[in-house]
Amino acid sequence: MLEQLRIKNVALIEDMNIEFHPGLNILSGETGAGKSMIIDAINFVLGERPGKDFMRHGTDAASVEALITAARVPPEFWAGLDTRPGDDGQILLSRGINAQNKSYCKINGRSITVGMLKELSAMLVDVHGQHEHQSLLDPAKHVVLLDRFCGEAIETEKVVLGVAIRAYKDVTRQIRELFGEGDRAAQLEDLTFQRDEIREAALKEDDEQRLTERAEILRNAEKLSNNVYQALELLYGGDSDEDGAIEKATLALNRIMELAEIDPSAQELADSMAAVQSQLTDIMHELRRYADNLRHDPEELNAVNERMDLIYKLKRKYGGSVAEILKHYQAVEERLDFFANSAEILAKLNMEKRRYTEEILNSCAKISAMRKTAAETIKAGITDTLRELGMRDAVFGITVERKKEFSSSGYDRVEFLISPNQGEEIKPLAEIASGGEMSRVMLAIKSVLADVDNIETFIFDEIDTGVSGRTAQMVAEKLAELGGRYQILCITHLPQIAAMGDRNFLIEKRVEGQRTVSEVFALDDEACISELARLIGGAEITKATKKAAAEMKKLALKNRKG
Prior knowledge:
- The relative contact order is 0.13.
- The chain is elongated.
- Among the domains are: 1-124 and 456-471 and 482-528 and 558-562, 3-Layer(aba) Sandwich (Rossmann fold); 185-340, no CATH class.
- It has helices at residues 35-45, 75-79, 114-121, 130-135, 139-150, 152-180, 184-201, 207-219, 221-236, 245-262, 267-293, 298-318, 322-340, 342-388, 429-432, 435-450, 469-483, 495-498, 525-537, 543-561; strands at 2-10, 13-19, 24-28, 61-69, 90-98, 103-107, 110-111, 125-128, 395-407, 410-419, 427-428, 457-461, 487-491, 503-512, 515-522.
- By secondary structure, it is α/β, with parallel strands linked by helices.
């Protein structure tokens, strides 16, 4: 239940605080006084997008707070939030927006997203504004209303249907990839060519490094040969008369060995020198072997370059490295295996597709059956309510027809129909209903829906569109009846409805300085009679209109008690 509403800097409202009560709360006032601004503020704090003129001119920010009793919100909703209702079941919703169009949403001072706010609000308050008249003319919205009557059972089955549809789409995608994308023969030819091209290259992951190093050696073969020859000459002596390093090392070894014969402490030096002389000899032999293998071979260099060009070409086609090319080759092999076994795979996929199709149709049939069962009950309930609202010969209907395609909500096309007068063919609402009839149809739907929704507060703006006289009285009595079970907030200009209020509020605007401000006043009995008199007779309130207003209020109280 909406206990209290605080509005700051919204349109003409500077700072307004309203304490609502259980039962039927009536808000009335002259046109332009600010009644619709209160609905805009409520919609805003419940998560709706504000209009462009929402913020009061000349201010930096607008805010709305709503104190609500949320006793009927399921405990699992609060499990995902860092807050919950107090011991009295109350929560405080807060929402604000500044001049830079930045907004915030909070529950009990804890920040939440707009999506979370909307999810919570849908369980707390049902707001009926003028746009809902238009939504009744759109058959696409009818299935949503009908499903609300079906309750949790249909939502549970929709979850089952959603799982089956996702599986069906996945299998369909696999089948399309196997056979549906272009010509299968062309795919096989292309994949086979790729496989053979990479296979013939016989690549190894170290090919690039190995070939690069070999090419560098072949390009510098002459320089390498010269360096090897000079090194050997320095070690061995070569053709020069001067001894090489090995010969000199041998002479040095002989001298040190003579030292060791005389002085045993020099033996370690002799051993070290012998090792150096042996290493120099080994190095000389290795250099000779290196020189024997070193040659300038233009044909081998060309072959290496051609091999590197092939790798570069394959890298451009299949990946940025040899490893990527080999990875692509593996994928091509797997794809070819897939095609080779496609008959068996396709048979399996088609079997799965048939199974998921059967599951989908089974779920759709269950959903459709629920809708048809609910539709029969609802048609009777709404027809009875319409008759209570003065449409004595009206017949309300709901068609549930199967479409060719299915979706996550099933395969039904739902449409609301009506025959407002005896002898008239039952037709879609959009083709028959007038403004006054649409208001009563919506009120009838809300009345029946209230019995299945877990919502405590219903808000009606312009529910009295197109009605007057005896019909207005019937609408008023129906609102009063709803007010006996739920909290109702109703903006109205009809005295018949206003007279039924358990609590009446007057919205007025006045000028302060050079600014217009809207204010709200809770009406006592005397003020309530005066407001009813204004609604009956207009701006001029006479003794006659006051008497009529008092009589109307007295009759309303009698009807409420009766």
